[in-house]
Description:
Shape: globular
Number of strands: 7
Largest sheet: 5 strands, mixed
Strand content: 5-15%
Oligomer: single chain
CATH class of one domain: Mainly Alpha
CATH architecture of one domain: Up-down Bundle
Distance between the termini: 68 Å
CATH topology of one domain: Glutathione S-transferase Yfyf (Class Pi), Chain A, domain 2
CATH superfamily of one domain: Endopeptidase. Chain P, domain 1
Strand order of the largest sheet: 3-4-5-7-6
Number of helices: 26
Helix content: 40-55%
Amino acid sequence: MTNPLLSKSVLPFEMPAFDLLTAQDYVEAVKHGIAEQLAAIAAITSSTEEPTFPNTTEAFETSGETLRRAVMAFSNVRPSHGTDDLVEVDADIQALLTEHEDAVHLDAQLHARLSAVEAAGGLDGERQRLSSETLRRFSQAGAGLDEAGKERLRALNAEISALSTRYGTRLLAGMNDAAVLFDSAEALEGLSDAEIASAARAATEAGHLHGYLLTLVLPTQQPALARLEREDSRRRLFEASTRRGQEGPNRTLELGASMARLRAERAALLGYDHHAAYVLEGQTAPSVEAVRERLAGLIPGALANAATEAATMAELAGRPLAPWDRAYYSARVQREKYAVDAAALKPWFVLDRVIHAGVFAAATRLYGVEFTERHDLPVYHPEVRVWEVTDADGSTLGLFLGDYFARPTKAGGAWMNSIRDGASLFGELPVVTNNLNIPAPAEGQPALVTLDECRTLFHEFGHALHGLFAHGIYPSLAGTSVPRDFVEYPSQVNEMWQFDAELVTKYALHVETGEPLPAGAVEKIQDAGLWGAGFSTTEYLAAALLDLEWHSLAAGEDPGDPLEFEDRVLREAGFSPEVIVPRYRTGYFKHIFDGGYSAGYYSYIWSEVLDADTVEWFTENGGGTRANGDRFRHELLARGNTRDPLASYEIFRGREARLEPLLVRRGLDAAAQ
């Protein structure tokens, strides 16, 4: 059978034939694509013509289409449904790609021609942006090294890639192994009947003859901790979460530490003080020092607020709190002080209705887009749903794929990916995906989501809109191909519509009665919004700092025992890790060791400055109107990286972003004065 990836897909939207593809098809397509791109590059570098934008920079951008097609398809299916055959070929594919990227970026002749195009000048707009960004990537990838340096760089890149793949594989296996099996339903007191039935189903699917299995999500805090009545059950779940990566065949600690050391050596080879400085080049943050200053400025206020929250909860509990008690007593404070019971509200948030009458409806109101579900396109798992997206004028925008339920073959967390980019150079329309890890409901039951999961649905769809609205020529500049510390900004803005007064009355309807939320419920949720902000900000800042310190090691610096390093870093910054555990610990910090966020986890708070300032703009200008949506879409979402993203922000907002709205949102405004 012909490999479907070796030619342009004939399916609508160039959708990959996921129903036909095998693991070996991906490997073959990657190898074929590599050979194809190398041949195209050889044609560029052997040309006797003077280097120009069309014959060099644009020609390079158009090379490797088979490889791009194969990598985008594999990069979607591997984390979403990583069956054994895909896991088996993953390391080989990553090794091939790492070796190929080095071959391309370390090609002296190609680099010289790209440099000549940039030096000649005369470019403007998107052509200038492509030229400068392409050359920056080559320079940062080591194009200016001598041959000995290039050889060492190749070895470092190969080793880092292999370690990252191994870390991700062990993390997924370890997360599945760490799922907590309870013998009786009584141990799950506090969970709903539907959640207990879901746990029973999970136990059966995992091969247990009896019992109730609580699977883990990626962060330290697990959703059930807020509702489990029995302290011992909370303790078991919390300890299973925080010990991931510390023992047994799925230990990841040394893998992470080794990656940090190798990244430090690579950074020095490339002329940087450390990996964090290497990563920050090309980001919107001006320097590592600026990031440190931002984090340091937020830590005291967050710790003070967290201490106040802890005192309130300890008074309620009648004793000092253990870390596994925090979510439970925080939920009790919300119920008893703010009259908000997040668990009791869950029946009002039916997944399908949240998607259609909430997430999609917000996009329709703001941008005029419509969604039509399709059942005729191949998907990589039966639970994946597909919608065709049309614009206000009836034209087709692209496809949106939603993959919402947890399964053993899916990586933890939530994310957006692109299968095709919205790039006019190739005449293609965007195909984007959202992945979440909502526990699948028991057979015949509707899926309900927590308030946090509801927020995540809006958040990830903000990424999807960023991809769907891409309006540019070149794929490497399209959609979400923006600096890492900018990419979270549009998704964070989209969270503001979760409790929009008009939307919430239509999507938050009781699963059995169809009744809307009780009168005043939204106002109570919003009034309670600052409760817990001290804890959530602190656990985030601890993780961001841990990431930054792992990647501020100098070449040759030995961090020592990974757990001791983690503990020392946190305590020196003023955190008490036995009281508030970071959102991610070294053993399960997928973002930085297998997710492209190394030295970049600060991005969420950096982007949130823009987000909070943008929410203020929407509020000041009449909220979720089409006029406001169209401005945000055309000046920011659609632009991608076709111009400096901060320039796009300033054009949209009319000025630079201010920090004050973020401080108010996080309850840190008093601490900043």
